[in-house]
Amino acid sequence: MNILITGGAGFIGSHLCDYLSGNNIVVLDNLALGKKRNIEHLLNNSNFKFIYGDILDDELLDKLFTSVKFDIIFHLAANSDIAKSYYDPNVDKDNTFLTTYALLNKMKKYGVKKIIFASTSAIYGDTTDVLHEDYGPLKPVSHYGASKLASESFISSFVENYGLQAWIVRFPNVVGERTTHGVIYDFIKKLKNDSSKLEVLGNGKQYKPYLYVKDLIEGILFVWKNSNDSLNIYNLGVNSRTKVKEIAQMVIEEMNLNAEIYYTGGDRGWIGDVPTFNYDLKKVNTLGWNASYTSNEAVRKSIQYILTLGSS
Amino acid sequence: MNILITGGAGFIGSHLCDYLSGNNIVVLDNLALGKKRNIEHLLNNSNFKFIYGDILDDELLDKLFTSVKFDIIFHLAANSDIAKSYYDPNVDKDNTFLTTYALLNKMKKYGVKKIIFASTSAIYGDTTDVLHEDYGPLKPVSHYGASKLASESFISSFVENYGLQAWIVRFPNVVGERTTHGVIYDFIKKLKNDSSKLEVLGNGKQYKPYLYVKDLIEGILFVWKNSNDSLNIYNLGVNSRTKVKEIAQMVIEEMNLNAEIYYTGGDRGWIGDVPTFNYDLKKVNTLGWNASYTSNEAVRKSIQYILTLGSS
Predict the structure, then answer these.
(1) In chain A, pLDDT over 90 holds for what percent of residues?
(2) Is the CB of A143 less than 8 angstroms away from the CB of B126?
(3) How many CB atoms lie within 10 A of CB B32?
(4) Spatial distance between the Cα atoms of A206 and A193, rounded to a whole number of angstroms
(5) CA B301, CA B304: separation in Å to the nearest integer?
(6) C-alpha distances in angstroms, B214 versus A176, B14, B119, B234?
(7) Residue A277 and residue A131 in contact, taking contact as beta carbons nearer than 8 Å
């Protein structure tokens, strides 16, 4: 099978490459957030090709779609640094939305029929309600969430107008090997600077599900193989959650420190942050998929990975 | 009050100008669909200004926002010809979505705090379910609907990030004076070409609410004045519907013809058409607003308007 993975050198994309190896894989990544070392071990495979480039490079995309007839696209490329685009919404409009739109147009032009889209819990907005796939109204609070919802919107209209088939999988926070940023990273960095104290943004009560990256990949592939509507929409997640306060404690524990935890106060880490959310996973659980690791286990694995990396 | 009305020379926008006259109004319209004759009667008012230009003209927008400190923006500019963008999705991506995005950025840059956004029932998709504002998942079938939903998404994130206040009003089919296209127009045009028969796209059973344009304007203003959340989302419509078959009959009747009606068959007029929908208007009705004219009355008024126009 010919597979295009955008953002394939990134944290999540590179794991997808591992799981799909054996197929003809083309990774398109501008290495804005992705890292070549994430896919280094695949570069010598004859059926693996890495292209350094940007989805918004129209000529490059035409060349790519002309040279390979893709069976399916896994579209993971996006700006995943949510806090950043507060200062410049174009970061998300361009890298998270217009990339999707550009791909959809090439699918239309070159007759590529299937797309799997990495969406997000951030499309729902800031609410303590339990979030089923039919929840509404959708009120994203970050430009990241807005861009992903805008992407979903056009995926829907392209599916209807041009006979595409799409799987929209809405990720929660994802952690594990090759993670590049986020709360765990921040805590470790702070403690390496000053091992006596740890500043936590917000009141520490932010309470979210953290999904282990390999669970996520298995979930994506499961949904793809087991649902067959023209437009398939699934939350992917884990039925447990972790408080930011617990993450802080786990990080201190794994680093064998005795640091004191300070809270900056307020109910969220930054504007656009969603302090707490609760996924309804009945749809994907009923389809037959469950995460293997709890949210706490996933967080601990991620801490251990980052610490190993730092000492290597 | 300083008011910017984008698309103010259009079918709906020009009625809004009439209702808001007395305020300082600036209309920005590229006359792609709008017509100067719709606002001709206002051009001599000292507090009414018409600017011929495009929202995507960044320099023009900067000049405009520098010269007037707007209290509120009514953003109605869009590609409203849904069927057209099947052939070129960019029509809607640019004119319906990126226009909204550009305005939001200027609001952020120049400190304009309030926006009223003309959204649409097309964001919900093709379903026979009763459509309350909390309906999901949203699966727009036209690029027009996708662009409006993408616009709503960014309005939501801009409201959260920069302290804007927004009113999103989701329109159904709107008819009445100054209408420029749509099923009524098409029927009259066909009958003027050949008064003996009328071809109807689909099976004639498409069943939708048609809202009289003056009712719509009053609804928009009512929602604006009577809701005060940071993000206010309302369906606007009428609690009755009209079959396309009935429209055909009314047109023939009003033209005093004896034409035979032919149906092309199929459950919809074109790809991207939503053959039937049913608005839940409890939210706006509870707020205190109801349309004055039924769907059938609105359709008949629109037919009479177009016929008068043709004979003038």
Answers:
(1) 87
(2) no
(3) 16
(4) 24
(5) 5
(6) 57, 11, 17, 17
(7) yes
Q: At what angle do helices B11-20 and B213-226 cross, to 10 degrees?
A: 60
CATH superfamily of the domain spanning B176-209+239-276+293-311: UDP-galactose 4-epimerase, domain 1 (3.90.25.10)
Q: What whole-number distance in Å separates Cα of residue B236 and Cα of residue B219?
A: 7
Instruction: Compute the distance between CA of residue A240 and CA of residue A210 in angstroms, rounded to an integer.
Output: 8
**A10 φ, ψ to 5°?**
-85, 180
Q: Which residue of A has its CA nearest to B136?
A: A134
Radius of gyration for the alpha carbons in chain A, expressed in angstroms and rounded: 19
List, for residues A64-97, the tens digit of each pLDDT value: 999 999 999 999 999 977 778 999 999 999 999 9
Pick A136's closest partner by Cβ from B135, B142, B157: B135
Instruction: Please give the structure tokens belonging to residue A209.
Output: 């599900």
Whether residue B146 and residue A136 make contact (CB cut-off 8 A), yes or no, is no
Model-level pTM? 0.94
Q: Do B165 and A181 contact (CB within 8 A), yes or no?
A: no
Q: Which of A99, A140, A105 is nearest to A118 (CA)?
A: A99
Query: What's the CATH fold of domain A176-209+240-276+293-311?
Result: UDP-galactose 4-epimerase; domain 1 (3.90.25)
Q: Assess A139–B contact: CB distance below 8 Å, yes or no.
A: yes
Closest CA to A113 of A49, A167, A51: A167
What confidence category does residue A312 fall into, taking pLDDT thresholds of 50, 70 and 90?
Answer: very low
The reply to whether residue B153 touches residue A140, judged by beta carbons under 8 angstroms, is: yes
Q: Where in chain A is the domain with CATH 3.90.25.10?
A: 176-209+240-276+293-311
pLDDT under 70: residue ranges of chain B = 272, 310-312
Question: Chain A partners of B158 at a C-beta cutoff of 8 Å?
Answer: 89
Q: Is A22 left (phi over 0), alpha (psi -120 to 50) or beta?
A: left
Name the 3-class secondary structure at A56. coil
CATH of B2-174+211-235, one of 2.60.40.10, 2.120.10.30, 3.40.50.720, 3.40.50.150: 3.40.50.720
Sheet holding A72-75, edge to edge: A48-52, A24-29, A2-6, A72-75, A114-120, A165-171, A231-235
CA distance A150 to chain B (A): 4
- Residue B135 touches chain A, beta carbons under 8 Å: yes
Q: A84-121 b/e with 16+ CB inside 10 Å = b?
A: bbbeebebbbbbbbbbbbbbbbbbeeeebebbbbbbbb
User: Which residues, other chains included, contact B236 with Cβ-Cβ below 8 Å and sequence gap of 6+?
Assistant: B169, B170, B171, B172, B211, B216, B219, B220, B223, B281, B284
**Diameter of chain A measured on Cα atoms:** 59
Decide if the complex's ipTM is over 0.90: yes
Contact B140 A157 (CB under 8 A): yes
